[in-house]
């Protein structure tokens, strides 16, 4: 089984600003390892003739013309915001990332 | 010692060789955003130029704006670079309120532009070649305003977010390490950023207004002891927002790092913030695991394939680049090296070109833009381009002088009135009755009045004292409020008195 350590999970949680209990760290390190194992099986199937891809459909150059349209109104944009002020989203100050 | 102490620049240059690197972010001036159809515009009401995608709402999918790819190709060609035959986008993962998707859509291992170079000319004509490592496409973040405290993030209690800028197309231009600039490093920094700004403006992919953040520079600086070729630890000074500030920031970082190293200290690899008021940098955050961006290929976008025909079409249509244009104009105008350099350094080459195009001679255009107009701009503490004097105005002034309607002295006054917004030179000359009086009827009348008022002077002149004519010209000039052609007045006086 692929090894995902507790420290790696804690690190990822910190990067994602997700608070995790000791119990969750233990559980997730096991579960994430299992997911990695499952995905690794795909690599066994793929032979030399299969090139790595980031997209399942062999498409390129799906473009949009440079035409502005379909914007939300300010009211619509802020509709689901937990807090807003002066037409802007209001969020708690985050100190670790400037 | 404090990590903000500085060593004298000359002394620092005796001991160390600076190594520079630049990341310049250029906001592209497409009509819509890079992955959504929201307008790409500056200065609108907050959160009005947004779609669900720009807010990172679930279920939204990006689609690449074709014009953005076209612009990247144009930049690639302008920077003598390779344009990738195939490239893709990648997610740069981080959590911060300015990026509601929780990732920036950027390019990582497959930038659209790579391996270019730019020859940068310093003010005295020395040329440095800057190697361009890559230029990649990405989306801009929203704009945060911190509330409470000092307005900066320290001490803020909450932040307001406007996502109008989120998704504005950016191209980030990254240089290879620049070695060998020596004591010219600060000047070279300024010249490089100026050259990039001028190029993106000339090829019309950006409005290139640094004060609006269209062009933003992060400057990397490190020092090597003289004789060493091992790079030292570098700092990255963020968001230096004018070409002059780039020069000062690089010089300050050199002096600060030199003081640290000479005292036996070490440079911390970190982000530093530039402060224009004190011309110093302060420590931002150290490089840390927060920079673990876990890039991976963007699964919601398909690769971009640029066939060679596309590149060649863009190359064929590329507008004239600033360096080529300058060379051509210098030859066309016949200016000396020094005259031309002064014009370029004063930033009025565009105005002179437009003025020549509108019909003035290069010499006349240079005379006005480098002379009275520059003086007016300086006195009013504005850029020449913001003074309100247009190339067409200069042409009109020249026409008025050529027609002997006004002289040089009055022309200067007229330009001042143009800058005051009083209208075109012709309108001003008309409205303020500034035309030189060359109407012989009006002049003769004034001369006759002067003769009648000054019988003693007339006697002297008739007795052969020709220099006394001046005493009659004076009253005529006064009567015509200085607008008479003095030479013509003299001729009329002599005619009327039958002398000479």
UniProtKB/TrEMBL annotation, chain A:
Gene3D superfamilies: Glu-tRNAGln amidotransferase C subunit, N-terminal domain. This is Aspartyl/glutamyl-tRNA(Asn/Gln) amidotransferase subunit C. Heterotrimer of A, B and C subunits. Keywords: ATP-binding, Ligase, Nucleotide-binding, Protein biosynthesis. It catalyses: L-glutamyl-tRNA(Gln) + L-glutamine + ATP + H2O = L-glutaminyl-tRNA(Gln) + L-glutamate + ADP + phosphate + H(+); L-aspartyl-tRNA(Asn) + L-glutamine + ATP + H2O = L-asparaginyl-tRNA(Asn) + L-glutamate + ADP + phosphate + 2 H(+). Belongs to the GatC family. Its EC number is 6.3.5.-. NCBIfam families: gatC. Residues 51-98 are annotated as: Disordered. Pfam families: GatC (PF02686). Residues 63-72 have a biased composition (Basic and acidic residues). It comes from the Bacteria.
């Amino acid at each position: 089984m692929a090894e995902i350590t507790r420290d790696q999970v804690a690190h990822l949680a910190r990067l994602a600003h997700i608070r995790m209990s000791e119990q969750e760290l233990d559980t997730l390190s096991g579960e994430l390892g299992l997911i990695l194992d499952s995905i690794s099986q795909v690599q066994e199937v793929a032979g030399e003739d299969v090139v790595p891809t980031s997209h399942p459909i062999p498409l390129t150059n799906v473009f949009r013309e440079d035409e502005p349209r379909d914007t939300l109104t300010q009211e619509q944009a802020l509709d689901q915001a937990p807090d807003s002020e002066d037409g802007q989203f209001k969020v708690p100050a985050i100190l670790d990332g400037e | 010692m404090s990590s903000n102490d500085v060593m004298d620049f000359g002394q620092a240059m005796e001991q160390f060789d600076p190594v520079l690197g630049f990341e310049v972010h250029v906001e592209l001036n497409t009509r819509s955003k890079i992955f959504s159809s929201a307008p790409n515009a500056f200065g609108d009401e907050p959160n009005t130029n947004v779609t669900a995608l720009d807010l990172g709402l679930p279920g939204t999918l990006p689609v690449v704006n074709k014009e953005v790819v076209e612009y990247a190709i144009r930049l690639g060609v302008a920077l003598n670079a390779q344009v990738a035959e195939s490239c893709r986008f990648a997610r740069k993962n981080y959590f911060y309120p300015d990026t509601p998707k929780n990732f920036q859509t950027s390019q990582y291992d497959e930038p659209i532009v790579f391996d270019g170079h730019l020859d940068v000319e310093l003010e005295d004509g020395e040329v440095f070649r800057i190697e361009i490592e890559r230029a990649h496409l990405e989306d801009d973040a929203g704009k945060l305003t911190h509330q409470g405290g000092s307005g900066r993030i320290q001490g803020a209690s909450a932040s307001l977010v406007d996502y109008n800028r989120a998704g504005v197309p950016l191209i980030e231009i990254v240089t290879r390490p620049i070695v060998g600039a020596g004591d010219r490093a600060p000047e070279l920094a300024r010249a490089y950023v100026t050259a990039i700004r001028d190029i993106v403006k000339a090829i019309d992919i950006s409005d290139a207004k640094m004060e609006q953040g269209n062009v933003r520079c992060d400057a990397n600086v490190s020092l090597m002891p003289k004789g060493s070729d091992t790079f030292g630890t570098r700092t990255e000074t963020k968001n230096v927002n004018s070409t002059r500030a780039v020069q000062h920031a690089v010089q300050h970082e050199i002096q600060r790092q030199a003081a640290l190293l000479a005292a036996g200290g070490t440079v911390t690899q970190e982000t530093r913030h530039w402060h224009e008021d004190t011309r110093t940098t302060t420590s931002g955050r150290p490089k840390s695991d927060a920079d673990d961006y876990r890039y991976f290929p963007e699964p919601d976008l398909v690769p971009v394939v640029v066939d060679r025909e596309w590149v060649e079409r863009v190359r064929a249509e590329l507008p004239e680049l600033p360096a080529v244009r300058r060379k051509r104009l210098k030859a066309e105008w016949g200016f000396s090296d020094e005259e031309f350099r002064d014009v370029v350094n004063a930033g009025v080459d565009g105005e002179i070109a437009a003025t020549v195009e509108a019909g003035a001679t290069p010499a006349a255009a240079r005379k006005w833009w480098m002379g009275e107009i520059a003086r007016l701009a300086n006195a009013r503490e504005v850029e020449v381009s913001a003074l309100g004097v247009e190339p067409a105005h200069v042409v009109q002034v020249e026409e008025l002088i050529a027609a002997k309607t006004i002289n040089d002295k009055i022309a200067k006054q007229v330009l001042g009135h143009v800058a005051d917004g009083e209208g075109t030179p012709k309108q001003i000359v008309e409205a303020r009755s500034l035309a030189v009086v060359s109407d012989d009827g009006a002049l003769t009348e004034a001369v006759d009045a002067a003769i009648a008022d000054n019988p003693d002077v007339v006697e002297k002149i008739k007795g052969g004292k020709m220099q006394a004519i001046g005493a009659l010209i004076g009253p005529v000039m006064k009567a015509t409020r200085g607008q008479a052609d003095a030479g013509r007045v003299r001729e009329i006086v002599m005619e009327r008195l039958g002398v000479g």
